[in-house]
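Dear support,

I submitted the protein below through the web form. The confirmation email said the job was done, but the results page showed an empty box. After a refresh the structure appeared. I'm attaching both so you can tell me whether what I see now is the final result or a partial one.
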Amino acid sequence: MTDREAGETAPFDLASMRMHYRAEGLTEADLAATPVAQFAHWFQQAATEARLFEPNAMIVSTADTDGRPSSRTVLLKSFDEQGFVFYTNYDSRKGRDLAGNPYVSLLFPWHPMARQVIVQGVARRTGRDETAAYFRTRPHGSQLGAWASAQSTVIAGRTELDASYADLAARYPEGEQVPVPPHWGGFRVAPRSVEFWQGRENRLHDRLRYVAEPDGGWRVERLSP
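What the results page shows now:
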């Protein structure tokens, strides 16, 4: 590759691209008693004060049984002290990964606030009643989409997907109940650790991590940035 070609593929000086964070810090005294309570506090700020676009968007990272990782963005749909819930096609790549290796990482990249939350835990499928209750809240088109897409599989083209959707739309018109796909449902990620990352000046960020204890409590530890 010539110097000119290299310049055309990298038009920016990536080494000099950085933001200087000047946000207030995060101390141990600031934290709630549990990581879920702390997450709820930060999430409310992200959604209402910072008005972030899709604050419930998270990067879900899985690995297959050979340790090969993959990541994708998924929307968080609920959370409580039992864990963080998202929904997907169980036959998708992440669904297959989690069937063989239930360990998962969730990353909430709230860049405009210079914040990140990283959840590491174990994923288990939600019950069918819980899955069905959530499925009924989805827009009609999204319900059809769960049937139309064989997620993560190779298809011949967009026409194939659109034809599948059109067939389903004719079979289940607006107002008619769409059955819950047997291959579709939720995962609840029970946290083993939750890190709260606050950007600080000079890259001396605050990183406080809750770690699950055997008695059900939480230990808080500070990580060097």
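Response: this is the final, complete result; the empty box was a page-load delay. The helical segments are 3-9, 35-49, 93-100, 128-135, 140-148, 158-171.
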